[in-house]
Structure formats: C-alpha cells, structure tokens
Amino acid sequence: MTEDATTAAHDHDEHEHDHSSTACEEALKELYVFIDGELTDEKRSVIASHLDDCNPCLEAFDFEAELRIVISRRCHDDVPESLKRKIALQLERQDDLPTDV
Questions:
Q1: In the chain, how many H helices and how many E strands?
Q2: Distance in angstroms (rounded) separating the CA atoms of residues 44 and 26
C-alpha cells in the first residue's frame, strides 16, 4: 500500500470514525487479498462491512483498486512468438525426463 493511502486510512483525527485502529489495521492488512477475492466469505464480509462504515479505509481501498486497474491496463508486454515456442519446447523436454518418485 502506498504511504499516502496508509496515511489517509489512519488519519482518524480528521474523520468521524467509530472503529478501533485495530479494525482498520486488520482491514488494510487484508486489502490486497480482499481486492483479489481470495478471502473466505466470512472474512470478506467482515472487511466489506468495515469498508462500508469507515471512509478512510474505503478511500484506501478505492485508491488501491484503481491503481491495480491502471497497472493491468498499461503495464503489459507482448511476448514474442519465438520465445513462447522456446519455453513450450523446454517444458515438453522437462515432461519427458524421468522422475524419481
């Protein structure tokens, strides 16, 4: 998480905020796995509820989610076909090797 997002999420003096800093820390600690959808339903529900009630944490979430979208749209490289073929050939060769199981 960026320093600005973390600072905004923990700047409790400027916002009405009825959650303990522990709840915020837990929500922010799990932010990336929340964004990636890799939490249990129960954990996801707890964090979603916190984000609904905590504007600073919601702002941090929105920033990180938007940043991920921008990065995924703009930061990608095209892999040359010759490299793809070389990798596939190496993987096939690995599959042909005997295994010591």
A1: 6, 0
A2: 12
